[in-house]
Design a protein that fits this description.
By secondary structure, the protein is mainly α. 81% of the residues lie in helices and 0% in strands. The protein has six helices and no strands.
Length: 153
Amino acid sequence: MLLNVATAGILGWLTGELLSCTVYLLLYIPLRRYVGGFHAAGYVRCWAGSGVMILAVLLTVRYREVPIWAELLIILACAALIARLSPVTVPNRPLSDEEKTIYRKKARMMAAVQVILALTAGAAGAGWILECVMYSFLSLSCLMLIEITRRKK
């Protein structure tokens, strides 16, 4: 985990998006624990996959402009997905029914707080924070859907 965060910090610095990277990670990491989704097999693959994902997010933040209405729509759609599907467990770390209930409640609560943060940031003109919430939710939703799809094979 420390290597992943350090790598993200280096990528944030190299892309000129260190602040966005920091906020993205502060939003993403706590929610990731309760949302679940795809996990790479082995630490090196996890590190590489995380690095690629974070680099893609940072380059998109840096070079793509997303209209605020689209950001809000993506946030709401991903929040609904997170509320409906989490936690998405993986075979090597199953959860009991009680744990699933607890994780689902925590994921929903954290996602709701982040939606409120995004709406407040958007209203206050801090679009970059709204963007960080959007990419965090989008990353988490993709990882959930990848794991669900992988299980069906």
